């Protein structure tokens, strides 16, 4: 990653918490192109998209967007939204798990209440035969997120998994710990702005660490979601599972809604499990900014879309 790209990414990520930029985006963003990455603002809109993707052989994980809340009452509201989401998935009989963020459930306000909220969602998912991935946020949340996931497993709620980010130096050690606990994991490169004391500054090092993480999980026989749009990493994984005779039902590829759609369809046609991360909801702005920061091409898509109107 060149210095220009790093600067561009840093500037974009700084906008994720900018209230003025958020206000403008919330007014115009979905109309100007954010709808490419966000599947609407309502549950029914999201479930309609899931149904269409299922028809193409693609599984889904739904994320009701929301993070950085300032009141516990907001966490209670989001918990209720997730209960409704799980009920909607069961009612529509679509192939979808759910993903949520600890900060959305009150992690930074009251960790115990956050745990209680997530526990209720995970228990509800278990009753419906579903599972929950607890998303990993910035490094200030890493220890707490891993701990609450392990705590859920200790209580027998093993339908909860979490996410490990390849750009953090600590990730291999975390994978070793969570694999021994039997936790399902989604492996990602990472999309937050982190200091070089905690994270690899070079993309080549992140990619190398990502491959080490995949190898560690597949060799351990633990179910793993490999979340990437990087075709080199996908090709490496396909070759690795062939040479090691890893069953196809031991892993899946995960990608984002609106990104590399044709690649998702191609992998599904080849017989791989493909799960698309589909976000929806009214609090879509921080998620949208991170998607723009990941690839400059996403910004040009928005600009071109603006001038086509």
Give your account of this protein's structure.
The structure is a single chain. The model is unreliable at 1-5 and 299-309 (pLDDT under 50). The protein has 309 residues and is α/β, with parallel strands linked by helices. The protein has a single domain (39-283), classed as Alpha-Beta Barrel (TIM Barrel). Helix 3 runs parallel beside helix 4 (72-92) and helix 8 (203-219) packs parallel to helix 9 (231-243). The chain has an 8-stranded parallel barrel, surrounded by 7 helices. The chain contains 12 helices and 8 strands. It starts with a helix and ends with a helix. The protein has helices at 3-14, 19-32, 43-54, 72-92, 111-127, 142-154, 171-180, 203-219, 231-243, 261-269, 285-294, 296-308, and strands at 59-64, 96-100, 132-134, 160-165, 185-188, 224-227, 251-256, 274-280.
Instruction: State the helicity in percent bands.
Output: 40-55%
SSE succession: HHHEHEHEHEHEHEHEHEHH
So, CATH architecture?
Alpha-Beta Barrel
Global Rg:
18 Å
Distance between the termini: 33 Å
Q: What fraction of residues sit in β-strands? A: 5-15%
Q: What is the number of beta strands?
A: 8
Overall geometric form? globular
Query: How would you classify the quaternary structure?
Result: single chain
Number of helices: 12
CATH class: Alpha Beta
Q: Output the structural class.
A: alpha/beta
Q: Name the average pLDDT.
A: 87
Tell me the CATH topology: TIM Barrel
How are the strands ordered across the major sheet?
1-2-3-4-5-6-7-8
Catalytic activity: L-proline + a quinone = (S)-1-pyrroline-5-carboxylate + a quinol + H(+)
EC number: 1.5.5.2
Protein name: proline dehydrogenase
InterPro entries: FAD-linked_oxidoreductase-like, PRODH_bac_arc, Proline_DH_dom, Proline_oxidase
